[in-house]
Write a structure and sequence with these properties.
Mean pLDDT: 90
CATH class of the largest domain: Alpha Beta
Distance between the termini: 14 Å
Order of helices and strands: EHHEEEEHHEEHEEEEEH
CATH topology of the largest domain: Thiol Ester Dehydrase, Chain A
InterPro entries: HOTDOG_ACOT, HotDog_dom_sf
Structural class: alpha+beta
Low-confidence stretches: none
CATH superfamily of the largest domain: Hotdog Thioesterase
GO molecular function, one term: fatty acyl-CoA hydrolase activity
Helix content: 25-40%
Keywords: Hydrolase, Isomerase, Repeat, Transit peptide
CATH architecture of the largest domain: Roll
Radius of gyration: 22 Å
GO biological process, one term: acyl-CoA metabolic process
Protein name: Thioesterase/thiol ester dehydrase-isomerase
Largest sheet: 10 strands, antiparallel
Strand order of the largest sheet: 1-3-4-5-2-8-11-10-9-7
Number of domains: 2
Protein backbone atom coordinates (compact mmCIF):
# COMPACT_ATOMS: atom_id res chain seq x y z
CA UNK A 1 0.00 0.00 0.00
CA UNK A 2 2.84 2.38 0.84
CA UNK A 3 4.36 1.89 -2.64
CA UNK A 4 1.63 4.08 -4.15
CA UNK A 5 1.94 6.87 -1.58
CA UNK A 6 2.30 10.39 -3.00
CA UNK A 7 2.43 13.73 -1.20
CA UNK A 8 2.27 17.04 -3.08
CA UNK A 9 1.76 20.60 -1.92
CA UNK A 10 -0.11 23.79 -2.65
CA UNK A 11 2.12 26.39 -0.93
CA UNK A 12 -0.45 29.16 -0.59
CA UNK A 13 1.42 30.82 2.29
CA UNK A 14 4.82 30.98 0.64
CA UNK A 15 3.88 31.41 -3.03
CA UNK A 16 1.93 34.62 -3.66
CA UNK A 17 1.37 33.93 -7.37
CA UNK A 18 -0.14 30.49 -6.63
CA UNK A 19 -2.30 31.98 -3.89
CA UNK A 20 -3.58 34.60 -6.32
CA UNK A 21 -4.33 31.94 -8.96
CA UNK A 22 -6.43 29.90 -6.52
CA UNK A 23 -8.20 32.77 -4.71
CA UNK A 24 -11.81 33.81 -5.31
CA UNK A 25 -13.12 37.35 -5.06
CA UNK A 26 -14.35 36.44 -1.55
CA UNK A 27 -10.71 35.94 -0.50
CA UNK A 28 -11.28 32.18 -0.22
CA UNK A 29 -9.59 29.28 -2.01
CA UNK A 30 -11.41 28.17 -5.16
CA UNK A 31 -12.48 24.62 -4.36
CA UNK A 32 -13.06 23.87 -8.04
CA UNK A 33 -9.36 24.40 -8.75
CA UNK A 34 -8.42 22.02 -5.93
CA UNK A 35 -10.82 19.40 -7.34
CA UNK A 36 -8.76 19.41 -10.54
CA UNK A 37 -5.61 18.78 -8.50
CA UNK A 38 -7.23 15.97 -6.52
CA UNK A 39 -8.34 14.14 -9.66
CA UNK A 40 -4.86 14.48 -11.20
CA UNK A 41 -3.29 13.20 -7.97
CA UNK A 42 -5.71 10.26 -7.87
CA UNK A 43 -4.72 9.26 -11.38
CA UNK A 44 -1.01 9.56 -10.63
CA UNK A 45 -1.36 7.39 -7.52
CA UNK A 46 -3.25 4.73 -9.49
CA UNK A 47 -0.55 4.72 -12.19
CA UNK A 48 2.10 4.18 -9.53
CA UNK A 49 0.16 1.15 -8.33
CA UNK A 50 -0.14 -0.52 -11.75
CA UNK A 51 3.53 0.01 -12.69
CA UNK A 52 5.06 -3.41 -12.99
CA UNK A 53 1.84 -5.19 -13.97
CA UNK A 54 2.19 -8.16 -16.33
CA UNK A 55 1.06 -5.92 -19.19
CA UNK A 56 1.21 -2.11 -19.43
CA UNK A 57 -2.08 -0.71 -18.14
CA UNK A 58 -3.96 2.51 -18.71
CA UNK A 59 -5.91 4.12 -15.86
CA UNK A 60 -9.14 6.14 -15.97
CA UNK A 61 -11.30 7.73 -13.27
CA UNK A 62 -14.49 5.70 -12.94
CA UNK A 63 -16.09 7.71 -10.16
CA UNK A 64 -15.60 9.87 -7.11
CA UNK A 65 -17.03 7.71 -4.35
CA UNK A 66 -17.30 10.53 -1.86
CA UNK A 67 -15.59 13.77 -0.91
CA UNK A 68 -16.14 15.56 2.41
CA UNK A 69 -14.94 18.97 3.53
CA UNK A 70 -14.08 18.96 7.24
CA UNK A 71 -12.72 22.50 7.45
CA UNK A 72 -12.04 25.53 5.30
CA UNK A 73 -9.11 25.52 2.89
CA UNK A 74 -6.75 28.12 4.40
CA UNK A 75 -5.58 30.88 2.12
CA UNK A 76 -2.71 31.73 4.48
CA UNK A 77 -1.29 28.21 4.99
CA UNK A 78 0.63 25.80 2.82
CA UNK A 79 -1.49 22.73 2.10
CA UNK A 80 -0.52 19.07 1.80
CA UNK A 81 -2.35 16.66 -0.52
CA UNK A 82 -1.42 13.05 0.13
CA UNK A 83 -2.88 9.71 -0.82
CA UNK A 84 -2.41 6.07 -1.77
CA UNK A 85 -4.32 3.08 -3.12
CA UNK A 86 -6.37 1.75 -0.21
CA UNK A 87 -8.39 -1.04 -1.84
CA UNK A 88 -8.17 -3.14 -5.02
CA UNK A 89 -10.97 -5.18 -6.53
CA UNK A 90 -10.52 -6.99 -9.83
CA UNK A 91 -9.83 -4.07 -12.14
CA UNK A 92 -10.88 -1.22 -9.84
CA UNK A 93 -8.76 0.67 -7.32
CA UNK A 94 -9.89 2.90 -4.47
CA UNK A 95 -7.57 5.87 -3.94
CA UNK A 96 -7.85 7.64 -0.58
CA UNK A 97 -6.65 11.26 -0.45
CA UNK A 98 -6.32 13.55 2.56
CA UNK A 99 -5.80 17.32 2.57
CA UNK A 100 -4.14 18.92 5.60
CA UNK A 101 -2.44 22.22 6.44
CA UNK A 102 1.33 22.43 6.88
CA UNK A 103 2.20 24.10 10.20
CA UNK A 104 4.14 27.37 9.69
CA UNK A 105 6.46 26.49 12.57
CA UNK A 106 7.42 23.23 10.87
CA UNK A 107 10.27 24.98 9.09
CA UNK A 108 9.29 23.46 5.72
CA UNK A 109 10.36 25.86 2.98
CA UNK A 110 9.06 26.40 -0.53
CA UNK A 111 12.10 24.55 -1.89
CA UNK A 112 11.29 21.60 0.37
CA UNK A 113 7.82 21.20 -1.15
CA UNK A 114 9.04 19.06 -4.00
CA UNK A 115 6.56 16.36 -5.05
CA UNK A 116 9.41 14.15 -6.33
CA UNK A 117 11.37 14.45 -3.09
CA UNK A 118 8.38 13.43 -1.02
CA UNK A 119 7.14 10.81 -3.45
CA UNK A 120 8.08 7.99 -1.06
CA UNK A 121 8.90 9.96 2.09
CA UNK A 122 5.92 11.80 3.60
CA UNK A 123 6.34 14.80 5.85
CA UNK A 124 6.48 13.85 9.53
CA UNK A 125 3.10 14.10 11.25
CA UNK A 126 4.49 16.82 13.51
CA UNK A 127 4.78 19.12 10.48
CA UNK A 128 1.05 18.90 9.72
CA UNK A 129 -2.04 20.14 11.48
CA UNK A 130 -3.96 17.38 13.23
CA UNK A 131 -7.18 18.72 11.69
CA UNK A 132 -8.26 17.16 8.40
CA UNK A 133 -9.42 19.68 5.83
CA UNK A 134 -10.78 17.29 3.22
CA UNK A 135 -11.02 13.55 2.60
CA UNK A 136 -11.76 11.99 -0.77
CA UNK A 137 -12.08 8.54 -2.29
CA UNK A 138 -11.62 8.10 -6.04
CA UNK A 139 -12.41 4.88 -7.89
CA UNK A 140 -9.95 4.28 -10.70
CA UNK A 141 -10.11 1.45 -13.26
CA UNK A 142 -7.19 -0.19 -15.05
CA UNK A 143 -7.65 -0.79 -18.78
CA UNK A 144 -5.88 -2.82 -21.42
CA UNK A 145 -4.60 -0.04 -23.76
CA UNK A 146 -5.14 -2.22 -26.82
CA UNK A 147 -8.79 -3.11 -26.16
CA UNK A 148 -9.77 -0.29 -23.79
CA UNK A 149 -11.50 -2.92 -21.66
CA UNK A 150 -11.02 -3.42 -17.89
CA UNK A 151 -7.95 -5.46 -17.04
CA UNK A 152 -6.94 -6.94 -13.66
CA UNK A 153 -5.07 -4.57 -11.34
CA UNK A 154 -2.13 -5.76 -9.22
CA UNK A 155 -3.36 -6.77 -5.76
CA UNK A 156 -2.25 -4.98 -2.62
CA UNK A 157 0.20 -6.46 -0.14
CA UNK A 158 -1.13 -5.57 3.30
CA UNK A 159 1.76 -5.20 5.72
CA UNK A 160 0.22 -3.64 8.84
CA UNK A 161 -3.00 -3.80 10.82
CA UNK A 162 -3.74 -0.21 9.76
CA UNK A 163 -3.48 -1.22 6.10
CA UNK A 164 -5.74 -4.21 6.67
CA UNK A 165 -8.29 -1.91 8.31
CA UNK A 166 -8.17 0.51 5.37
CA UNK A 167 -8.60 -2.36 2.92
CA UNK A 168 -11.63 -3.66 4.86
CA UNK A 169 -13.07 -0.14 4.86
CA UNK A 170 -12.65 0.00 1.09
CA UNK A 171 -14.45 -3.32 0.69
CA UNK A 172 -17.29 -1.98 2.87
CA UNK A 173 -17.49 1.19 0.74
CA UNK A 174 -17.76 -0.91 -2.41
CA UNK A 175 -20.48 -3.11 -0.90
CA UNK A 176 -22.44 -0.08 0.29
CA UNK A 177 -22.18 1.54 -3.12
CA UNK A 178 -23.51 -1.59 -4.84
CA UNK A 179 -26.38 -1.77 -2.35
CA UNK A 180 -27.18 1.90 -2.90
CA UNK A 181 -27.27 1.38 -6.67
CA UNK A 182 -29.65 -1.56 -6.25
CA UNK A 183 -31.96 0.54 -4.05
CA UNK A 184 -31.84 3.66 -6.23
CA UNK A 185 -35.02 5.47 -7.17
CA UNK A 186 -34.27 4.61 -10.81
CA UNK A 187 -34.71 0.94 -9.90
CA UNK A 188 -37.24 0.91 -7.05
CA UNK A 189 -40.11 3.08 -5.81
CA UNK A 190 -39.61 5.32 -2.78
CA UNK A 191 -39.90 3.85 0.70
CA UNK A 192 -43.21 4.27 2.59
CA UNK A 193 -41.81 7.20 4.59
CA UNK A 194 -40.54 8.83 1.39
CA UNK A 195 -43.93 8.38 -0.27
CA UNK A 196 -45.50 10.09 2.74
CA UNK A 197 -43.07 12.98 2.30
CA UNK A 198 -43.91 13.22 -1.41
CA UNK A 199 -47.61 13.45 -0.54
CA UNK A 200 -46.86 16.20 1.99
CA UNK A 201 -44.93 18.10 -0.68
CA UNK A 202 -47.80 17.56 -3.11
CA UNK A 203 -50.32 19.03 -0.69
CA UNK A 204 -48.07 22.01 -0.07
CA UNK A 205 -47.32 22.89 -3.67
CA UNK A 206 -50.93 22.35 -4.80
CA UNK A 207 -52.20 24.94 -2.35
CA UNK A 208 -49.93 27.52 -3.98
CA UNK A 209 -50.91 26.47 -7.51
CA UNK A 210 -54.67 26.38 -6.88
CA UNK A 211 -56.09 29.94 -7.15
CA UNK A 212 -59.15 28.96 -5.13
CA UNK A 213 -57.07 28.53 -1.93
CA UNK A 214 -55.96 32.14 -1.96
CA UNK A 215 -52.57 31.11 -0.58
CA UNK A 216 -49.43 32.74 -1.88
CA UNK A 217 -46.12 31.01 -1.97
CA UNK A 218 -43.93 32.34 0.89
CA UNK A 219 -41.02 34.56 -0.09
CA UNK A 220 -38.50 32.05 1.21
CA UNK A 221 -39.86 29.24 -1.00
CA UNK A 222 -38.50 28.80 -4.53
CA UNK A 223 -39.82 26.41 -7.16
CA UNK A 224 -37.17 23.83 -8.07
CA UNK A 225 -37.47 24.66 -11.76
CA UNK A 226 -36.60 28.30 -10.97
CA UNK A 227 -33.21 27.33 -9.51
CA UNK A 228 -32.01 26.07 -12.90
CA UNK A 229 -28.75 27.44 -14.30
CA UNK A 230 -27.26 26.33 -17.61
CA UNK A 231 -23.84 26.74 -19.18
CA UNK A 232 -22.68 25.57 -22.60
CA UNK A 233 -18.94 25.04 -22.98
CA UNK A 234 -16.66 24.16 -25.87
CA UNK A 235 -13.82 21.84 -24.82
CA UNK A 236 -10.21 22.35 -25.92
CA UNK A 237 -7.03 20.24 -26.20
CA UNK A 238 -5.48 22.08 -23.24
CA UNK A 239 -7.95 20.23 -20.98
CA UNK A 240 -7.20 16.71 -22.24
CA UNK A 241 -5.74 13.81 -20.27
CA UNK A 242 -3.18 11.18 -21.25
CA UNK A 243 -5.83 9.33 -23.28
CA UNK A 244 -6.69 12.42 -25.34
CA UNK A 245 -10.05 12.77 -23.62
CA UNK A 246 -11.25 15.71 -21.54
CA UNK A 247 -9.68 15.57 -18.08
CA UNK A 248 -12.20 14.49 -15.41
CA UNK A 249 -10.94 17.15 -13.00
CA UNK A 250 -11.80 19.84 -15.55
CA UNK A 251 -15.37 18.54 -15.74
CA UNK A 252 -15.54 18.52 -11.94
CA UNK A 253 -14.44 22.16 -11.75
CA UNK A 254 -16.97 23.28 -14.38
CA UNK A 255 -19.77 21.44 -12.58
CA UNK A 256 -18.73 22.65 -9.15
CA UNK A 257 -18.59 26.31 -10.17
CA UNK A 258 -21.97 26.17 -11.93
CA UNK A 259 -23.45 24.32 -8.94
CA UNK A 260 -22.04 26.94 -6.60
CA UNK A 261 -23.66 29.71 -8.62
CA UNK A 262 -27.03 27.92 -8.66
CA UNK A 263 -26.89 27.45 -4.89
CA UNK A 264 -25.71 31.00 -4.18
CA UNK A 265 -28.44 32.53 -6.33
CA UNK A 266 -31.00 30.33 -4.61
CA UNK A 267 -29.86 31.13 -1.06
CA UNK A 268 -28.91 34.75 -1.81
CA UNK A 269 -25.70 34.42 0.19
CA UNK A 270 -22.22 32.90 -0.10
CA UNK A 271 -21.81 29.14 0.24
CA UNK A 272 -19.39 26.76 1.87
CA UNK A 273 -18.66 23.42 0.23
CA UNK A 274 -19.69 20.42 2.37
CA UNK A 275 -19.53 17.26 0.26
CA UNK A 276 -19.48 15.81 -3.23
CA UNK A 277 -21.23 12.48 -3.60
CA UNK A 278 -20.78 9.55 -5.97
CA UNK A 279 -19.81 11.14 -9.28
CA UNK A 280 -19.96 8.54 -12.03
CA UNK A 281 -18.05 9.24 -15.24
CA UNK A 282 -20.54 7.48 -17.50
CA UNK A 283 -18.94 8.31 -20.84
CA UNK A 284 -15.63 9.87 -21.78
CA UNK A 285 -15.75 13.31 -23.36
CA UNK A 286 -13.87 13.80 -26.61
CA UNK A 287 -11.71 16.87 -27.17
CA UNK A 288 -13.73 19.47 -29.09
CA UNK A 289 -17.06 18.29 -27.70
CA UNK A 290 -19.75 20.76 -26.72
CA UNK A 291 -20.77 20.36 -23.08
CA UNK A 292 -24.18 21.42 -21.84
CA UNK A 293 -24.19 21.68 -18.03
CA UNK A 294 -27.48 22.09 -16.16
CA UNK A 295 -27.63 22.76 -12.40
CA UNK A 296 -30.64 22.67 -10.07
CA UNK A 297 -31.01 22.92 -6.32
CA UNK A 298 -32.95 19.72 -5.57
CA UNK A 299 -33.05 19.67 -1.75
CA UNK A 300 -32.66 22.13 1.11
CA UNK A 301 -32.88 22.16 4.90
CA UNK A 302 -33.82 24.67 7.58
CA UNK A 303 -30.14 24.83 8.60
CA UNK A 304 -29.20 26.31 5.23
CA UNK A 305 -27.80 23.13 3.68
CA UNK A 306 -28.67 22.33 0.09
CA UNK A 307 -27.93 19.66 -2.50
CA UNK A 308 -27.26 20.82 -6.05
CA UNK A 309 -27.45 18.36 -8.93
CA UNK A 310 -25.40 19.17 -12.03
CA UNK A 311 -25.89 17.15 -15.19
CA UNK A 312 -23.26 17.31 -17.92
CA UNK A 313 -24.40 16.43 -21.43
CA UNK A 314 -22.34 16.09 -24.61
CA UNK A 315 -24.20 17.74 -27.49
CA UNK A 316 -23.94 16.22 -30.96
CA UNK A 317 -23.62 19.49 -32.88
CA UNK A 318 -23.40 17.70 -36.25
CA UNK A 319 -26.83 16.20 -35.64
CA UNK A 320 -29.75 18.21 -37.04
CA UNK A 321 -31.74 17.50 -33.87
CA UNK A 322 -28.80 18.44 -31.59
CA UNK A 323 -29.15 15.18 -29.69
CA UNK A 324 -27.12 14.81 -26.50
CA UNK A 325 -26.08 12.08 -24.10
CA UNK A 326 -25.41 12.22 -20.37
CA UNK A 327 -21.70 12.17 -19.57
CA UNK A 328 -21.69 12.92 -15.85
CA UNK A 329 -24.03 13.63 -12.96
CA UNK A 330 -22.72 15.54 -9.96
CA UNK A 331 -24.33 15.82 -6.51
CA UNK A 332 -22.82 18.66 -4.47
CA UNK A 333 -23.76 19.68 -0.94
CA UNK A 334 -23.30 23.28 0.21
CA UNK A 335 -24.30 25.29 3.27
CA UNK A 336 -25.15 28.98 3.10
CA UNK A 337 -23.11 31.30 5.31
CA UNK A 338 -23.48 34.88 6.51
CA UNK A 339 -26.21 37.13 5.20
CA UNK A 340 -29.24 38.56 6.94
CA UNK A 341 -30.75 36.50 9.74
CA UNK A 342 -34.18 35.06 9.05
CA UNK A 343 -35.82 32.11 7.39
CA UNK A 344 -33.55 30.13 5.11
CA UNK A 345 -34.64 29.60 1.53
CA UNK A 346 -36.52 26.38 0.74
CA UNK A 347 -36.72 24.60 -2.58
CA UNK A 348 -40.08 23.07 -3.50
CA UNK A 349 -40.78 20.55 -6.29
CA UNK A 350 -44.06 20.57 -8.19
CA UNK A 351 -43.94 17.38 -10.26
CA UNK A 352 -43.29 13.69 -9.61
CA UNK A 353 -39.95 13.88 -11.43
CA UNK A 354 -38.86 16.82 -9.29
CA UNK A 355 -40.03 14.99 -6.16
CA UNK A 356 -37.73 12.09 -7.08
CA UNK A 357 -34.85 14.55 -7.38
CA UNK A 358 -35.81 15.97 -3.98
CA UNK A 359 -35.73 12.50 -2.40
CA UNK A 360 -32.42 11.64 -4.07
CA UNK A 361 -30.90 14.86 -2.77
CA UNK A 362 -32.20 14.08 0.72
CA UNK A 363 -30.69 10.59 0.60
CA UNK A 364 -27.31 11.95 -0.43
CA UNK A 365 -27.29 14.67 2.21
CA UNK A 366 -28.10 12.15 4.93
CA UNK A 367 -25.68 9.50 3.63
CA UNK A 368 -22.42 8.49 5.33
CA UNK A 369 -19.28 10.60 5.11
CA UNK A 370 -15.85 9.35 4.11
CA UNK A 371 -14.01 7.44 6.79
CA UNK A 372 -10.29 7.05 7.04
Amino acid sequence: MSDSFVQVFLPFRQDASLRDEYSSHFGKIRVGKVLEDLDALGGYIAYLHVVGASIPLAVVTASVDRMDMHGELPVDRDVSLSGHVSYVGKSSMEVTIKVMAVLPESGITLADMDSIKFLKTPLPASALSDQLILTAKFIMVSLDPATQRPSPSPQLILETDAEKELFALGAAHKSRKLQSAQNSLAQHPPTPSELSLVHTLYKEYMQYLDPSTGKQKPENVTWMEDTKLQNTVLTFPQDRNLHNKIFGGHLMRLAFELGYLAGAMFSKRPLQFVALDDIAFKRQVEVGSVLDLIANVVYSTEEGKMVVRVKAYVVQIGDAEKTKFLSNEFWITFVSIGGVEGKKMRVLPKSYEECMGYLEGKRRLEGPTVGN
